[in-house]
Amino acid sequence: MAKQLNCLRVRPPRKLRPGKAARLRSRGVKLRRLIKSYECGRLQCDLRLSQQALEDYQRRYRELFDFAPIGYLSLDHHACAVEFNPAAARLFDRPREFFLDRPFHEHVHPRWRNQFNDHLRQVFNGLECAQEMVLLKRDGTPLEVQFQSMPEVAADGRVIGCRTAVQDLSEHRRQEQVVERTSRAYQVQAACNRALLQAGCEDALFAEICRIIVEKGNFALAWVGLVDEGERQRIRPVAVYGEHADFLRGLSISWGNRRSGRGPSGRAVRLRKPVVCASIAEDSIFASYRQEAARRGLASCISLPLLTEERCLGVLGIYARETGVFSEEEERLLMELANQLAFGLIALRMRTEHGAALEQVQKLAYFDALTGLPNRSMFLERLEQGLSLARREDRRMGLLFLDLDRFKDINDTLGHEGGDQLLKAVGERLRGCVRQSDTVARLGGDEFVIILHSIYGQGQVEPVAKKILDAFTQPFLIGSREVYSSTSIGIALHPTDGEDVDTLIRHADAAMYNAKAEGRQIYRFFSPEMNRRIQAKLLLERHLRLAWARGETYIHYQPQLDLKSGIVVGVEALLRWNSPVLGKVDPVRFIPLAEETGMILPLGEWVLRQACRQVRSWHDAGHGDLRVAVNVSGRQFRHPDFIDLVDTILAETGLDPTRLVLEMTESTVMEKTEEAIMTLTDLKIRGIGLALDDFGTGYSSLNHLRSFPIDQIKIDRFFLSDLNGPYGQAAIVEAMIAMAHSLGLRVVAEGVEEKAQVDFLMARHCDEVQGFFWAHPLKAEDLPALLRPDCTSFAKAILH
């Protein structure tokens, strides 16, 4: 043992020879250099990765900053711009480099610079704030904007700058001006109707009409001229009112096709339609009178013919101080005024001989000819009177805005005569739901309003709304038919929701549209949240317009399973949207918006092309029996080039037309039924499959169903959701399947999620199903896995 321990003793190192020691030292130096070089390389690699990550982040930030539709800018402590995105530069019509390192207050309107400084002071004190202000564009014109600013804070907590979002308010202001001018036009129309009733002679009537137009409509000049039928074909001015009434003095105005008749008044008489001159300084039709008009500050005009069925009596001319002020809605209202003036003129001339004519004029002025209810003019007058009374007596007032649900569908089915009878019946039923002191009026079309005078609060309005909804649960007898209709009601209260006519009407209208959006046959009180929802809808629309171009939309495919064979025989192409800002957006939100705005046309074309191309690629891969179903919106279906578009896409992709199924809803094919049948027939001739989607949820008849050349119906998921419930869903589904088979149609059930639903449908010989029970909507690359023989065998085992 001692000997072994002796072997383990540490012996002192032997003395190395000088040469060997030097070699070892040299190797150590090289090793240390190698380690140091390795560590430096690793640090450089880490640094490059960090720099790359930072550059990627900065690039993404810069892309968001540069492509944002709203202006963004950053200011330093001296209010100089250090960042300025292209959207902000476009507001000023300058390159963004122009603004960098320059004091931003140079671009603020002088009258708003104090407010701008106060705004910056609050931000540099650490506050977020928003403020409207006026900036100056490149040419010096004012630009109204909304500033939304927040402080830029350094790591040590100091405020080192200001980050600001700038939103152009020009369009918002323009819309307000359009609403204001339209409101004035309504007021002018109402006041002129009163003048028509009170007129004793033509000269007094024309003078009063011109005065009302100028004073209440805020126009510069108005005049009335009567047509002479003689050879000279003159237009003789009989009344004029305004700042420059001398404008017409000495002018020779004709309605003949000569030099003196080529102005707007002569053209309006010859063409028997309004003539708008948006800019007198630029429009060639005003060349003969341009200098005289410019000298008096007249910038635009509209000439309205005074028409009867047989001839044109004269012309009503209206001049404005600004260019481009006559919107389509204002033009329509002023033409209505001209028509009323023409009718009033005829009635005035016949008053001594026909006393009944005056009564008819009064009725036309204040009452709806169809229902006998007060019309818009009387409604506005009574609403103004009611507001004045409510202010004096410290009472409240309620305004109910009603719109019939799906009236167009009913009108198309019953015909216009049947639709008119329904409107009369609705008017009578509404009168029975309110007090005699209240006002029920028809605004036009299927829109009705009710004024509840002198109420104490919401508690008196709600029972009336409920009573109206209850009244609509009973059928309307139209001829020998019982017709069911429903209504959506929006309610605004004075003074809570508005203290003037325009605000109350606008808020009640917004509440009514909110009621429609929430399901119809309900009432909703106005709330500020409704305005916020409108803003949210505008935001969604803005992002949707960018989504398609940015590649944010994509398609998933949901398999359709044949219940007899257990084979996947088709797929439905479903559009999806994943927004980097909004996240995954539900199709229920963006598809109706796309339909409403017209964006559904390019989106629908893209979906159809992509789906056909994808299915053709599956065919080439050996899945030749697979078909694809593509949803077609109403706007797409009714587009005049829809058939040509389908032909083009089929030719481009090489897809067999028999492998394509187009799905339309009942409401789509029920609108303009004869045209719809022609379109469906053209598609059918090409071999394209046609399916009626969401069957049973729309408004159609079995007679129409028999007339449509469709191949299949799709039972909506709603009918499968409660097959064992007390509402007879099972019986309805069974009847649908039997009826479809009797007409030679295939049946596809949507939303199948449970085995019990599959068993029920198989027992009733439903042809195909789709839903989560078999597969969720899949990416294109994931679908072929379901087409393998082992998956088909598995499906057969589950089904049988």
Automatic annotation (TrEMBL):
Residues 537-791 form the EAL domain. GO terms for biological process: cellular response to nitric oxide; regulation of DNA-templated transcription. It comes from Geoalkalibacter ferrihydriticus. Residues 395-528 form the GGDEF domain. It comes from the Bacteria. One of its GO terms (molecular function) is cyclic-guanylate-specific phosphodiesterase activity. Residues 129-181 form the PAC domain. PANTHER family: BIOFILM ARCHITECTURE MAINTENANCE PROTEIN MBAA (PTHR44757:SF2), DIGUANYLATE CYCLASE DGCP (PTHR44757). This is PAS domain S-box-containing protein/diguanylate cyclase (GGDEF) domain-containing protein. Gene3D superfamilies: 3.30.450.40, 3.30.70.270, EAL domain (3.20.20.450), PAS domain (3.30.450.20). InterPro entries: Biofilm_reg_signaling, Diguanyl_cyclase/Pdiesterase, EAL_dom, EAL_sf, GAF, GAF-like_dom_sf, GGDEF_dom, Nucleotide_cyclase.
